Amino acid sequence: MLAWNRPDETIEAIASALAQTGVRRHVFVVDQGSEPENLARLKAYCAGRSDVTLKCLDHNVGVAEGRNIAIALGSAPIIVGMDNDAVFPDGTTIERAVRRLREDPLLGVIAFRILDFDTKAEDHWDYPLALRNGAIESFEATRFLGGGQAIRRDVFEAVGGYDGALFFIGEERDIAWRIINAGYRIKWFRDIAILHHEHAGQKVTWTRRRYYFTVRNTLYINFKFGMPPLRLLRATVAFLVRGARNGLIGAAIEGTYASVGMMRRFAQTSTNKAAYRLSDDVRRYIRATDQEATRSFVDRIRGLFTRLPG
Predict the structure, then answer these.
(1) CA distance 106 to 95
(2) For residue range 174-212, what is the model confidence (pLDDT) as tens digits?
(3) Topology, domain 2-196
(4) Taking the complete model, does pTM exceed 0.90, yes or no?
(5) 8 Å CB contact between 240 and 253
(6) CA 222 to CA 241: how far, in whole Å?
(7) For residues 65 and 164, what is the distance between their CA atoms, to the nearest angstrom?
């Protein structure tokens, strides 16, 4: 897990992970520049514990690179990631996840349910709305949420880990599509969840910075996966229109400009480009699993003029 201030929540998350039974586990925490007094409390809690490793950075390197650093500290065949303001609902959540991964060698990632700590309702949802159904026990997905997931280490390493250039937003889709392209599947299970605290005053809003990262990273990721130039242009126009509608046109322009630089650097690097070359079968699978075809043209246009949460 990654940590930045909020020592009480981080300590609670660590304790919840240590309380998991039926598996051999070690908790790795990467602190990304917490205030000295908060870091001191975290250090004091971790001191002398053989099953917790705390690595301290002097600044925030972003979610994607922070996860890479944390994952590189360990060697276990299954990596479980969680937010530092979350806890497991019971002591056997990870055991169930590990068992499912062992039973299905082509299951690369388990996407945890993210539930509100108090209400137990779905706290975040990044899947087709039709699947948000209490009768559905599991489904295949094309991404997972960073708040909780279990990934095979060999698969994670084979596809190159997270793209640290993303900083935050979109890093899960970026690696998830590479995992699918490598022949593995991602599944959501109703009985594998994590409880997420909702912090007063910290609800995600569409600030200039968040919209900038959304525009920049989405265009960059789409470029890496071979989106044709005309479709990239259409996506750019859509972001600009929605940015203008929400008073974020400056962030949209800045994000678009920054994405071009990222595309150029990606094209010039020695990064394994093959991981991003999706076959026709994989593209069809992603479209079908995301249920893109269920959205009408009118719905897509209407979405451009919908107000973002403020």
Answers:
(1) 18
(2) 999 999 999 999 999 999 999 998 764 444 466 889 999
(3) Spore Coat Polysaccharide Biosynthesis Protein SpsA; Chain A (3.90.550)
(4) yes
(5) yes
(6) 18
(7) 4
